[in-house]
Amino acid sequence: MRGVTHAASRVGPSVSEFLESRERSGRVASTFSGGVVVSLETGAATTLIAVQSALTHFHPWAVEIETQARVPVGARVRAGSSALRFEGGPQIRLKSAEVPELRALALSADARRQAAEELGALKPKLPQPDLLAPIEAWRRGGDPARLLALIGSGPGSSPLGDDLLVGLLAGIATAGTKRPRHLEVGQEIAASSLVDRTPLGSVQMLAAASEGRFPEPLCLLIEALAKRVAEGSQQRDLLACRVANLLQMGDSSGTGFLHGLRAGLSASASSL
Question: Strand 5-7 vs strand 91-93: parallel, antiparallel, or unpaired?
């Protein structure tokens, strides 16, 4: 791989924004089935970026290349707005890559209500059902600070409580800016101290979701729900495909996203 140059096909919006200001250095922190995780240092802060193949679920903190990057753990890396350079390994060009917005499609209140009903009919099993209690408390009119109890809670390397919150924020985001009451949730999470409460990858995903940026499978599912509501049975297969794709994320992340999304859609369509 020494001297090989790859052109990134897509760069997550959070990665693009992070690397825009200046060059950073770090190391390969870990590997996974679809690529590697790079850890970049900024003073005392650490930021993780996934460099992954096109077969892996895309998200705001990912760099996508057509073939899997094979770089050993511990390899040094320098990262800037134009490229990622691995010591003794490949260089990944970022400059001409697409930067998807990864925003949730805005839906009418009626479409949100129908979409929530569609997801409610699926009933995927949540590994720890009691984690829905803070969401129900918030939906009954409680302070959005109640939702902070979910941060870092539940099973999974990406805690299930965090996944529920990301899905919830995606559902809320489908209301656009018309429901300030619900935007308080994102503001509450963004203002809280996350670093000591949950793994760094979850911290970054929650921060991105608070800014309205979500994993691509969530965005694609929302689009499929909109088509299903608008066009009926013609879009049944597309919806089933998007649901299956989401549920493949992690051991329980997809299930958490789905339950959170349904709650967010339902709450944002209500009179709260």
Answer: parallel
